[in-house]
Amino acid sequence: MPLSDSSLERLVPDDLSETDATGRRTLGFHIERYRFAARHAASGRALDIASGVGYGTRLLADENPGLSSCLGVDLSQDAVRYAETRYARSGVSFAQDDALSFRDADGFDTIVSLETLEHVSDPQRLIDNLAQMLR
C-alpha cells in the first residue's frame, strides 16, 4: 500500500525505507502509544477505531493476553484489506466503517482511538458514539 509523500497520517510499516527517519520516528511514537494502551486495556473485547492498516490493533492483542478479541475499524477499505491480509489472526479482525456511525451491540471493554479527533467533522459525536459502546 503506497504511503502518500505529503502525509504521515497513514503509516504502512512495511513500506517505510531504512532511510526514512521521519516515518520511522513517527512509527515509533505510534507503537509506544499502542503499547501504553495495551498495558492499560481492560480484559475482554477491544476496539481500535480509525485503525489504519492494522499494526496497532495487532500490537494491542499481542501485548495484552487478557484481550479476548481486538477489532480494528477504519474508513478506508484499502487499509482494511491490507490489515486483513497482514495483521489479522485469531482474535484480531478488521472492518470498514465510519468512526462517527460505527455501532456494535455487544460493546467493548477497551476502546483505543489514536490521532482521530482532529480528522472527524464532529469530535463530540465521535466521543458520544464511543462512550455508548464502552461497557
UniProtKB/TrEMBL annotation:
GO molecular function: S-adenosylmethionine-dependent methyltransferase activity
Residues in Methyltransferase type domain copies: 47-135
SUPFAM superfamilies referenced in this protein's UniProt entry, alphabetically: S-adenosyl-L-methionine-dependent methyltransferases
Annotated Pfam families: Methyltransf_11 (PF08241)
Signal peptide positions (record): none
Name assigned to this protein: Methyltransferase type 11 domain-containing protein
